[in-house]
């Protein structure tokens, strides 16, 4: 994965939304594991998946714990159960959160692929 060398926000944004390939975005969708999960699996971070239970560590919703409802690969964001804002029209919408701002508290479904990753 080629990381941009510039510190300019414009070029950083362009890299994130235009040049980074979809299969390289997996690395940006990783979140830290809680202390007990870290001890259990011997890993520091893991890719966030739909169904995982996460705790928000940064931002306006700090401390909120909920299940991941959606993982947006294109925008590198996740949507968490109960994290909503009210629009001017009165409709409630889920707020997209950056995976780097959350901590995985409980793993969702552990299938063969994830089991392989955890055993590495």
What's the arrangement of strands in the largest beta sheet?
A: 2-1-7-3-4-5-6
What's the number of structural domains? 1
Instruction: Tell me the series of helices and strands, N- to C-terminal.
Output: HEHEEEEEEH
Q: Helix segment count?
A: 3
Sheet with the most strands, sense and barrel status: 7 strands, mixed
The CATH topology comes to SH3 type barrels
Would you write up a description of this structure?
The chain has 3 helices and 7 strands; from the N terminus they run H-E-H-E-E-E-E-E-E-H. By secondary structure, the protein is α+β, with helices and mostly antiparallel strands. It has a single domain, classed as SH3 type barrels (Roll). The mean pLDDT is 92.
Short description:
The protein is α+β, with helices and mostly antiparallel strands and 120 residues long.
What's the arrangement of secondary structure elements?
Layout: H1 9-19, E1 30-33, H2 35-41, E2 45-47, E3 53-56, E4 65-72, E5 77-86, E6 92-97, E7 102-106, H3 112-119
Which key phrases capture this entry?
120 residues, 7-stranded mixed sheet, 3 helices, 22% helix, SH3 type barrels
């Amino acid at each position: 994965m080629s990381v941009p060398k510039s510190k300019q926000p414009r070029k950083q944004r362009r890299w994130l939304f235009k040049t980074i390939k979809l299969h390289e975005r997996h690395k940006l969708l990783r979140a830290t594991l809680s202390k007990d999960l870290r001890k259990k699996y011997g890993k520091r971070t893991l890719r966030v998946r739909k169904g995982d239970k996460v705790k928000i560590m940064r931002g306006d919703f700090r401390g909120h714990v909920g299940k991941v409802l959606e993982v947006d690969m294109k925008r590198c964001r996740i949507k968490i159960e109960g994290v909503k804002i009210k629009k001017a029209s009165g409709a409630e919408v889920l707020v997209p959160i950056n995976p780097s701002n959350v901590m995985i508290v409980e793993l969702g479904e552990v299938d063969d692929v994830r089991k392989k990753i955890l055993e590495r």
